[in-house]
Amino acid sequence: MEDYIHYLDSAAISLGDVHFRNGDFALASSSYTKALNLLERYNGDSMVALETAAYLSRRIKECNAKST
User: Fold this and answer.
1) What does the alpha-carbon distance between residue 39 and residue 33 come to, in Å, rounded to a whole number?
2) The Cα angle at residue 36 between residues 22 and 53, in degrees rounded to 5
3) Which sections of the protein are TPR repeats (predicted)?
């Protein structure tokens, strides 16, 4: 098992995706931010972790743009 797995909050990411699809961008951003904050504690170099962090950052920016 990869070492980054303990830093992925799959539940928060999935919940963020549900809120995003439903148009509740404030809650989506909150869920994505929670997941990103945990993932930022990861000190390794796994591409999966880096790609997930990039995905979360993009989604947070999208949520902020759509909620204003």
Assistant:
1) 10
2) 95
3) 9-42
Residue listed under structure tokens 């929670």? 34
Evaluate whether 13 touches 33 at the Cβ level (below 8 Å).
Answer: no
Which two three-digit tokens encode residue 9?
Answer: 């909050």
Q: Tokens 């993932």 sit at which residue? A: 39
Return d(Cα 8, Cα 21) in angstroms, integer: 21
Q: Are 66 and 25 in contact (CB under 8 A)?
A: yes
Task: Look up residue 66 and give its two tokens.
Answer: 């759509």
pLDDT of 22-44, one tens digit each? 999 999 999 999 999 999 999 98
